[in-house]
Write a structure and sequence with these properties.
The protein is an alpha/beta fold. It is built from 16 helices and 11 strands. It folds into 2 domains: 89 residues, Nonspecific Lipid-transfer Protein, Chain A (2-Layer Sandwich); 310 residues, Rossmann fold (3-Layer(aba) Sandwich), CATH 3.40.50.150. Helix 2 crosses helix 15 and helix 14 runs antiparallel to helix 15. The chain starts with a helix and ends in a 27-residue tail after the last helix.
Length: 423
């Protein structure tokens, strides 16, 4: 009786679209009207099992463990759930989106805890990320001037777009907070003539970036430290320009105000900073699945939360750009490359790991597709800026005033090897 009532409620909740369920005995049941967008194939149990207090955890674990399969795009399944409110995904999306939306425990997260959380995701191994990221190992939203751009081109364009927004000049000091594998710091030094320092809490990223800086002969122009931004604050170091891409999501809600305060302290008066981060359309928390398996300790603020904290400091907002559609394209590229690399990934990890990352990437794409998460670039200055032009024309004119062009990719490069070529 209860199962019948639950199925009836599930049917009534489908306002748009449709899907099919194949039971363990091979019988099929359709939900919604029209051709199914995807099919859920149960290896055991019933679809009723996922209609519970925490459906996202239940489904995520079942999918990871091979107890349920999805025929079709997992992103379509997540989009369907968002559109129909079957699960509270609009308040707590799956995957990158969810990791990223409400996470962390309340209270102050220590640097040790933050480093451990970062290691959970980013220290899986450079060999893993080499398989499916672009040549520069840039693990953040790319910038597509055209939908036909390759991922490598789009990531280069994102780096240059970000540095040009800063109006980075030769010999200026640049701090990259959360530098990843160092591609932006290297480009800033080699292409813009800046003195760039990147900091990261990931030992794998630190080792990879340091090796490329040394092999490229950029010592003295670019460097990387395995350190936290608060250490630099205590040292009293200040920079002409600061950039932070995809890092603010990891500081946690309780430390978000301190992060903005540190940003102000690290920036010279008149200096300019660029915050590039994922934001939530509404305030909410991560799913328990994401918190457990993908991004422990992370928190996605709304744009309003960031602007409110900035306005409480001597920081001025000059430009805000939404790159949400670009991240959807980026994730689709990552998913395609990931799937082509699955035979090689399985040499390092088991099928459960593969399914977990597949769900993370496709659910994240759905989150950006539906607009429940976005990416914003926020250009700030400490006090009045020293060299911002009156218009944005320099960003799009093709002028070489900011940054020297090159016939080769000047960013971080790793040799993939024949078996790891995911392009």
């Amino acid at each position: 009786m209860i199962a019948t009532q639950v199925l009836g409620a599930l049917r009534e909740s489908v306002r748009t679209g449709s899907f099919a369920v194949v039971r363990p005995d091979g019988t099929t049941e359709d939900f919604g009207n029209g051709e199914p967008q995807f099919t859920i194939r149960l290896r055991a149990g019933s679809i009723v099992d996922f209609v519970c207090e925490d459906p996202l955890m239940r489904f995520g674990e079942a999918y990871m463990n091979g107890q349920v399969d999805v025929e079709g795009d997992l992103a379509d399944l997540v989009s369907f759930a968002i559109q129909n409110g079957i699960a509270p995904i609009s308040d707590a999306p799956l995957g990158f989106a969810g990791a990223i939306r409400r996470a962390a425990s309340a209270g102050i997260r220590s640097c040790t805890r933050q480093k451990r959380d970062i290691a959970h995701h980013y220290d899986i191994g450079n060999d893993f990320f080499r398989l499916w990221l672009d040549e520069s190992l840039t693990y953040s939203c790319a910038y597509f001037r055209s939908r036909s751009d390759t991922l490598d081109r789009a990531q280069q364009q994102k780096i240059d777009h970000s540095l040009r927004k800063l109006r980075l000049l030769p010999n200026e000091s640049l701090l990259d907070i959360g530098c990843g594998w160092g591609s932006l710091a290297i480009r800033a030094a080699e292409g813009f003539g800046a003195r760039a320092l990147g900091i990261t809490l990931s030992e794998e990223q630190y080792a990879g970036a340091s090796a490329v800086i040394e092999s490229s002969g950029l010592q003295g122009k670019a460097s990387v430290r395995l350190d936290n931004y608060e250490t630099l604050v205590r040292e009293g170091t200040q920079f002409d320009k600061i950039v932070s891409i995809g890092m603010a999501e990891h500081v946690g809600e309780a430390r978000l105000t301190q992060f903005i305060r540190s940003l102000e302290a690290l920036l010279k008066p008149g200096g300019v900073a660029l915050l590039h981060l994922i934001t939530g359309a509404t305030r909410g928390s991560t799913t328990s699945w994401t918190k457990k398996f993908i991004f422990p300790g992370s928190y996605i603020p709304t744009l309003a939360e960031i602007i409110n904290r900035v306005s409480q400091r001597d920081l001025h907002v000059w430009d805000v750009e939404n790159l949400g559609p670009h991240y959807k394209l980026t994730l689709d590229h990552w998913s395609d490359r990931f799937e082509r690399s699955v035979p090689f990934i399985r040499k390092q990890f088991d099928d459960r790991f593969v399914r977990m990352w597949r769900l993370y990437l496709r659910a994240s794409s759905a989150g950006f597709r539906e607009g429940i998460i976005q990416v914003h670039q926020i250009l700030l200055s400490r006090g009045q800026p020293s060299n911002l032009p009156l218009t944005r024309e320099d960003l799009y004119s093709g002028s070489e005033r900011f940054g020297r062009t090159s016939q080769r990719n000047t960013c971080l490069k790793f040799n993939r090897g024949a078996s790891g070529d995911a392009r």
